[in-house]
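quick one, three chains, predict together pls
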Amino acid sequence: MLPYLQYTFPNDIHIHWSIMIVMYPYITGLVAGAFIVSSFYHVFQKKEYQPIGRFALLTSLAFLLCATLPLLNHLGHPERALNIMITPNFSSAMAGFGILYTSYLVVLILEIWLVFRKDIVHFATTYKGIRALPYRILTLGVYDVSDEAIKTDHKVITILATIGIPSACLLHGYVGFLFGAVKANPWWSTPLMPIIFLFSAVVSGIALLIILYQLMAIFRGTEVSQDCVRGLARWLWYFQIQTVTLELLEIITLSYERNEAWEIIAPLLTTKLAFSFISVQMVLGSLIPFILLMVTVLLDKYLHPKVRNSLTFFASILLLIQVFAMRWNVVIGGQIMSKSLRGLRDFHPEFLAKEGILPAMLIFALPFVLLYFLVKVLPPFEKERQLAS
Amino acid sequence: MGKGHHRHLIRAAILLGAAIFLFFVVRALLIPKSFGLYGHFRGENLAEQASLPIVHGNPNSCAECHDDVWKIKLAGRHAAVPCQDCHAPLTQHVTEDGVQPMPIHKTFALCARCHQKLEAKPKTFPQIDFHEHVVSKDKNLENEEICLSCHQPHSPMGEK
Amino acid sequence: MLKLPSAPQSNGGKIEDEDAISRREFLTSALKMAPSVALFVGLMRVSPLKAAEQALGMIPGTNYDPSEHLFAYVVDINKCIGCGMCVKACALENKVPDHFFRTWIERYVVSEKGEVIVESPDGGINGFKPMTPGFNVSKSYFVPKLCNHCANTPCSQVCPVGASYTNQDGAVLVDSKRCIGCGYCVQACPFGSRFINPLTRTAEKCTWCYHRITKGLKPACVEACPTGARLFGDMNNERDPIRKIVTEEHIAVLQPEKLTKPRCYYLGFDKETR
């Protein structure tokens, strides 16, 4: 490194926003992405996504319920977390979190409730004793599942899903805005940030659902709908191209403008972030899945279902890694660079620390456990629902 | 919409309304009393900030007891040097339990803070290369209080 | 502060059989909820409501009225000798945890070719040692740093809970009893003036020694400076020497392009200073 790039402000010795703050946008991104996949069916009426329409909603909820955990674990005083809703300071972007989060939670829960209401009423009436109790509570005492009632529900579902898309975009665009609007940090401060966050959120959501849908099919012993996978692969490819283009555009602009911060961002990308940015985010996570998805989409008619499944599956795994790497490079990368713009710090994540790797893994495992129970309580797939009725 | 087929929706709406209402009731109870008094912050905090204990005394307060030293210092080249820099904060000396011995730093490390020759210091400020200065006077630097063997700290170069 | 909107007018009506509720009847029943809506809106306000222009008066327990003062801080780079007494005094006065700094000193060493080395070993709390930069030094100087108490401060702006705030007298302060420790203000400060205190787990920064200035004393760093490189004063006081400097001298602020409007001004500023 150049000798004059060695000075970090004395208070800048710690990376204060560490893995937990990487996890948070990652998880909310999956929430928004999964919701948008569910809207392919619930808003845009695309029949090929019917097999995962309901499952995508449950996935979104499972991750949304865990989205605050990394934040609470990060806060110096989690017991004061509600101050953000008691005395919100609306000049701060962060003060909007409480409102955005709860309003999206309400929209999502209402939509899921209406989508599953027929099943809820069915379980409430067929199950006996304690097993029926949660379903009875969920009916709110109304057992009306006449065609007219269901028709009404569908109208409301369409409205909710339509509100849900901007809500999900706001919830996640807001996360990008939190970073994009910090003028103190030239690696964060760009109006592109919320858009990059949104597009990569959709990428991660589609990728997660491709993976979960195929795994569920294997465990449930059912066929993977090729129409569904084919469609998802196309969307995934489209959003991946958009995301990577935007990510590169940001860097190219900084470089081409000879931005004053480029002098420190260039060594940041080629030294401290060389592995996570160049190798993981750009090559492993962008170039390889781009090729895999290109094959899937362009050579579609020549592909055997198993090949198509495998190609999309591996591309999805790589893209999930890509999006995580992108969050990492933004959150950690922005802090590796001292605000003196004269020096880079080191970041060595600890495994067992309060905000270490293990707690991050546990927090990331939790939505999957929740999803398992949600799927048990409200079966989203046709087969189980037919068996139950 | 078919008549009478949205009872569940109304119940859900009432439930949601009740939850929002409850939130605002709880919120109203949890806002600190003095919040918003002076601006969007807890007004009492100003008094809390203002009542933190003072550690360094008023620079002139040393003269109240040490008038003799004060006069020597005032007449010398160290007139502007605050007492508490080379000694310690006043509250370590004058405490609630009476007067405690004042720590005195006598080592050349202290003198070096100001007088070690450095490029970054203003050219007009008196500064010396310690090795050159002391060795040229046939002394060694192992004696940590070597500066005091020639200089009187309160008036190091004699009267101005 | 939230405004208190006027309550919607209540409109009487009867609850009908829920089964037979029509759109109009639904509206009617919604209007019946108006009194509760009024109460709800009433609860939304931040209590207790005070007119913003109302004179604040003395801070309880002091003879100090914040509305009568507007403080400013001046650093004269030409006078700083890098002794570190200010950093030490600050640490003692404010019980600043080790390896964190409410104020610190930087040393800039510039070569004839424009190469720059900047350093601040342990914030300069123990002063500076001679160094060999590996090039011919053309100029070198010390720059004391502290919170700039910006008039347009990004740190208070981003505090989600109103724990960090700008007071009328210009001081930017943190309420450690409200701070949730999110660290957003630490990220938002372009000057690195803030940190999270590992003991209290809340944000902390220079307060201009608020406990001293409210009693007519100078901040500890100003009192500790042997060369007069640090000055503090009240812009509202016509006879305060700082007013003359700020209004008449050529002064600079750190990172002016960030438009944070610092109340901490520098004399003898070099372009390398950031």
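Strands of chain A lie at 6-7, 342-343.
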